[in-house]
């Protein structure tokens, strides 16, 4: 076998066994890993390995776009991602541990995706609907909140107003649902159209979750929710909950609470 073929096979094997190499050979030392990737870049022209076959741990290096091998694999990964179909996107979203999702997350985390296909949007719509109906487990919300900022606003308005209508007709949202859906519902859900239902099913349970959602969600968004609260038929109930929290002095040194208490005259 010539040198080209040998190098190609060595690079292929290295990429497929990347995690074991870093752990066993380099004892998971970050500096040694960076030096290793730098040496691997000399084999960039020999790259034939498909992104889906590369060990998942490699994709954390997408922040190193100055490395020619990383850059080449990023380009191939972006092409791979853009050519998935709806079913593949949907499966990817549901399974955060699989290689497709790791590729997707690494691309998003490093601002490497500039647009999304109609197939992606259709899968995303099915994905969030599946979470709302409890057919899909609620994933970590932080990544999906960040992704929301990259997605088409008009499509998000359509998706999240539909979710608003769904939640308005069902039981009060729980903490996990509030954390996952709050960004989309508040930004795109046009909650004023269902202010009574969403005050009862979304805002009130958010406030009652004093040690979690109240502090981490409500206090960050109360100004955007103020009009809905004041015009809702559940205004007095909500004000009563807020007064109870205010009188407890649990958040007396929190500037958000101080400002809110003045605005609501607690």
Count of separate DSSP helical elements? 14
Taking all Cα atoms into account, the compactness measure Rg is 24 Å
Content-based structural category: mainly alpha
Assembly state of the chains shown: single chain
Mean pLDDT: 94
Helix/strand order = HHHHHHHHHHHHHH
Tally of strands: 0
Largest sheet properties: none
Q: Determine the fraction of residues in helical runs and give it as a percent range.
A: 55-70%
Characterize the structure shown.
- Helices cover 68% and strands 0% of the residues.
- With 266 residues, the chain is mainly α.
- The N terminus is likely disordered.
- It is built from 14 helices and no strands.
Topology:
Elements: H1 3-16, H2 18-25, H3 30-40, H4 68-82, H5 86-94, H6 99-109, H7 118-132, H8 141-148, H9 153-168, H10 175-188, H11 195-208, H12 210-231, H13 235-248, H14 255-263
Helix pairs in contact: 4-6, 5-7, 7-9, 8-10, 9-10, 10-12, 11-12, 11-13
């Amino acid at each position: 076998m010539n040198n080209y073929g040998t190098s190609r096979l060595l690079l292929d094997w290295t990429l497929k066994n990347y995690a074991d190499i870093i752990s066993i050979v380099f004892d998971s030392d970050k500096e040694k890993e960076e030096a290793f990737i730098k040496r691997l870049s000399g084999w960039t022209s020999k790259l034939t390995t498909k992104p889906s076959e590369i060990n998942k741990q490699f994709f954390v290096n997408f922040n190193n776009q100055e490395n020619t091998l990383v850059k080449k694999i990023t380009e191939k990964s972006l092409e791979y991602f853009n050519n998935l179909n709806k079913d593949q996107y949907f499966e990817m979203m549901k399974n955060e541990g699989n290689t497709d999702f790791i590729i997707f997350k690494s691309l998003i985390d490093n601002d490497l995706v500039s647009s999304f296909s109609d197939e992606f949007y259709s899968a995303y719509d099915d994905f969030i609907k599946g979470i709302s109906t409890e057919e899909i487990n609620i994933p970590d919300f932080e990544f999906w909140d960040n992704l929301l900022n990259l997605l088409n606003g008009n499509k998000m308005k359509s998706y999240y107003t539909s979710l608003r209508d769904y939640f308005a007709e069902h039981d009060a949202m729980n903490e996990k649902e509030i954390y996952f859906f709050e960004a989309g519902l508040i930004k795109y859900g046009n909650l004023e159209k269902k202010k009574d239902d969403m005050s009862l099913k979304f805002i009130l349970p958010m406030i009652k979750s004093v040690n979690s959602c109240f502090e981490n969600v409500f206090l960050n968004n109360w100004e955007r929710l103020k009009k809905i609260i004041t015009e809702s038929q559940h205004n007095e109930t909500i004000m009563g909950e807020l007064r109870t929290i205010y009188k407890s002095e649990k958040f007396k040194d929190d500037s958000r609470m101080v400002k809110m208490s003045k605005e609501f005259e607690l």
